[in-house]
């Protein structure tokens, strides 16, 4: 009996002494103690290698370390992400927890009832932009929270400055030149270098072409989407002039973003999404000048979209997914995420004080917000936003191939096709 009692008390002492090792400390124990230990993220947000490496090696790793869990990230296209989540919802075989999607493709998730209400899991004490509430929210319920948003910026290689139209300086480029000056500059570059070095993202797979075209049209009073206004016709006139001057980068049809040809030296001048521009700029900041969107008769114009986080309805690791939403909306984490996606704009007001002198891309975008005609992406109003994108390709190709503004009949036909896609 004495031996049994001795063994009992020794076992109890050992258990008590070991308890802290099992309990751990802080948030890590919350996931490990009866909670989920794995999180599945479907990420349709980037084709940039550097951004993927940052996401996996730094951003995700920080979350894994903080909570003592494993995060699996699947990189697939926007269209495939929609099909994947729809299939999981239809079959009730739900595998994915977190969905990362852009506002241009948000309608199926929100209208399909595929997502959870995440209002209660956003980091406390922050102030979010309301620019995208009509897309991320429905019926007073928030289904997505923006991770970042964007505008379009001008980027010029320093070697292109010698071809600036007479009277213009580097500071004029930073503050914002006119679209007419942009076109003349691009033509000057082509004449001087013997090859076009300005780019619009003309690949129709995962197309991004309509966004810079829309920015041009907005600068002259056009709408978005829009095919028949005088403002959009002016944009097409400028595009036709670039084509007539052989100013376009010959291989632009291969790209949906200018990053690679900017870095290779093939592109010296572009008006593009600040994220891809930022990747090239951050790789060689002394080689680039970043400027505001060029101006038209109505001022500067730009479209703006957001990439957003949401939790799939029925997520198998919902408890950990809720922690992820808090994590990604913490100001320091969001700042790091934005900066490592090229310097895109943060949707969180409290990130502003974290900006430093090195944050040139984000600062340029923030500066534009107060003086630029900015349009959101009305994708939820259309049954197939990709089909709308391809109509812009038709307008672009017609202007480039004929080196003239397409006929009114041609543009009215595009307008009718666009209206037929409305919900």
**Could you tell me the radius of gyration in angstroms?**
25 Å
Dominant shape: globular
Spatial arrangement of strands, main beta sheet: 2-1-3-13-6
Query: How many angstroms does the end-to-end distance come to?
Result: 81 Å
Sketch the major β-sheet.
Answer: 5 strands, mixed
Strand composition percent? 5-15%
Which architecture of the largest domain per CATH?
Answer: 3-Layer(aba) Sandwich
Total domain count: 2
Structural class: alpha/beta
Helix content: 40-55%
Low-confidence stretches: 1-33
pLDDT averaged residue by residue: 91
- Annotation, overall tally of beta strands: 14
CATH fold description of the largest domain: D-Maltodextrin-Binding Protein, domain 2
The CATH H-level homologous superfamily of the largest domain? Periplasmic binding protein-like II
The helix count comes to 17
